[in-house]
Amino acid sequence: MITVRRKVLFGDCDPAGIVYTPRFSNFALEATHDALSDLFGGPAITTMQQRGFVTPVRAFNLEFLTPVTWDQELEIKVSVSRVGNQSFTLEVKAYLNPDQLALTATITYVTLSVETKEKISLPEWLRSALSKSAAR
């Protein structure tokens, strides 16, 4: 599990000071990219593109559990929940404090060839990195 911290900015919020719904999607996606970068030891998207594949989102599920407002800090925990043949799923849990879960998300990425944009099997190095992370 990898933890990312995200402070809610003024521009993330609506006039009532509560985070705009679409921003939560960005928070979750950005956290998974940060987690993958940590796992790979370098920028995730660039690393994958240089190795010949991209990972668009195939499925995204997000559940809001409590309002989040400007200037609060989220502790976002990202973990690997599934490693498939051509896709992998990351689970995201964002907390306002250790006991207050603010949102959960699951994001499934599919692996596509950079050249053909067709599905490919997960490269072995990616499968290995994700499997090791899932086992932690």
Protein described:
This protein is an alpha+beta fold and 136 residues long. It contains three helices and seven strands. The strands form two sheets. The chain has a five-stranded antiparallel sheet. A two-stranded antiparallel ribbon has the order 2-7. Strand 4 and strand 5 (87-97) form a beta hairpin. The model has no long low-confidence stretch (mean pLDDT 95).
Helix-strand string: EHHEEEEEEH
Instruction: Report mean pLDDT, rounded to a whole number.
Output: 95
**What distance lies between the first and last C-alpha atoms, to the nearest angstrom?**
7 Å
Tally the beta strands: 7
Low-confidence stretches: none
Q: Multimeric state of these chains?
A: single chain
> What is the percent of helical residues?
25-40%
* Inertia-based shape: elongated
Rg for CA atoms: 16 Å
Q: How many DSSP H or I helices?
A: 3
| Widest beta sheet: strand line-up | 1-4-5-6-3
Tell me the strand percentage band: 35-45%
Q: Which class best fits the helix and strand makeup?
A: alpha+beta
Q: Sketch the major β-sheet.
A: 5 strands, antiparallel
How would the blueprint of this fold be written?
Blueprint: E1 2-7, H1 21-40, H2 44-50, E2 53-54, E3 57-64, E4 73-83, E5 87-97, E6 100-110, E7 112-113, H3 124-135
Antiparallel strand pairs: 1-4, 2-7, 3-6, 4-5, 5-6
